[in-house]
Amino acid sequence: MSQHPRRPLLLAALTAGLLGSALAGGSAGAAPQMGDLDVNGARIHYVSVGQGTPMLLLHGYPLSGELFARNRDALAAAGYRVITIDHRGYGRSTAPASDPGSLATYAQDALAVMDRLGVQKAIIGGMSMGGPIVFEMYRRAPDRFLGMVLIDTIANPAGIPEQYLWRGMAQEAQTNGPQALVNDLLKDMLTGQTRLNRPADETFLSNIVKQASVAADVAGANVLATRPDSIPTLKTITVPTLILVGREDTVYPPVFSMKMQQNIPGSKLVIIPGAAHAAIFEKADAANAAILDWARTVR
């Protein structure tokens, strides 16, 4: 051992680096940065991969930034700084009991993370619940947007049946814990074929769902049940916009994405075959290709 006094330190550093990359869903070569930021009374976990044009991606309910584990490296390799966050109470983020989450706080948190990371403007994207958050961010700070990506999401307010669905999710989480939402949600996140042939995908998303706090599950469900009508907002969007949706999405089927495309001037719609609600994860290669093809037009 006296011949190699630095070996334990080198092995420890290497192990830490590889572990960090694994947690970030990236590779060692991508050199991901991650941390926790105290913003608006919450502690928000973030992962940042790559250099170049910033791209902030916001996850849906009740997931975490690891939804984008298959997107970060591919987008970063093409010249983007890809930033993902866990909304308060989800993943590795925490929230005060006084404010477990709301549409306003989710939007404020995301803008505050941009500030703390020195990002003045970014391409900002949101999946499912992330879409209403992106719309709220745009209403508050349109000057922070270089472009917008809307992923398996919706601009319409929740109708009465959908309101009851989300409130039922909140009650389920309160009664039986976050793990109780797995069976209710995973059937819509992935297609039946993927669940049959790629069970590891279902396990990965199931584990993310289980990480959320009960308070976050309740808060997010309430946000979805009470989200405002963002159709008027669509007509005010002047930045380049990409709309992605899985062809088999049964939560917010492609017809809602088609309606958004009709109302956002100059927007582009891409429907991904063989994908359900978590198309960004289930068909990551197709989603990455669509984002990069579109992003080249963003100036």
Descriptive account of the structure:
With 299 residues, the chain is an alpha/beta fold. The chain has a domain of 194 residues: Alpha/Beta hydrolase fold, catalytic domain (Rossmann fold, 3-Layer(aba) Sandwich). The chain contains 13 helices and eight strands. Strands 1-2-4-3-5-6-7-8 form an eight-stranded mixed β-sheet, with helices on both faces. Strand 5, helix 4 and strand 6 form a beta-alpha-beta unit. The N terminus is likely disordered. It holds the Pfam family Abhydrolase_1. Keywords: Plasmid, Signal. This is AB hydrolase-1 domain-containing protein. It comes from Deinococcus aetherius.
Q: Characteristics of this structure?
A:
299 residues, alpha/beta, Rossmann fold, 8-stranded mixed β-sheet, 8 strands, 46% helix, 17% strand, AB hydrolase-1 domain-containing protein, signal, plasmid
